[in-house]
Amino acid sequence: MAETLSLDATLTKAEQYRQLLPQIEALTTGEPDLTANLANTAAALRQAFGFFWVGFYLVKGDELVLGPFQGPIACTRIRHGKGVCGASWARAETLLVPDVEAFPGHIACSSESKSEIVVPIFKNEQVMAVLDVDSDQLNDFDHDDQAALEQLMQLAGQWFV
């Protein structure tokens, strides 16, 4: 298991993701513990890109419950369909939000969050959790983020038993 990341900050964001994803896969392969894998993934994403907040919300009944994360304290529970995370869960699709203030029903866990991407994690076509990534910059996420994070969350779906 590698305990450090090898990253080249001179690469484009898409190239950085291509460099990072195999490292996360190597870090999580053979580790059966969901919490450990989610925690290391959140840490790796934040370390690689300096995002304001990176974390997971796990589906528990009719709520998303805060899981492993990196960043300031966060909302603990989010109802189905509420905020960006709850909407991503309800729609079972990635939501890329360039300005969180413009998103109807946005839940402001931190006033410093300006843009957000939320990617659902599926197991047997059911949403098990969502990856939530926040930036303190407007319009900080694009289709490179979406494509890479969706690929990573396909891997994450395998961690759920």
UniProtKB/TrEMBL annotation:
- One Pfam family from the UniProt entry? GAF
Domain GAF span(s) in chain numbering: 33-158
The family annotation for this protein states: Belongs to the free Met sulfoxide reductase family.
Q: Mind telling me what this protein is named?
A: GAF domain-containing protein
Q: What is the lineage of its organism?
A: Bacteria, Pseudomonadati, Bacteroidota, Cytophagia, Cytophagales
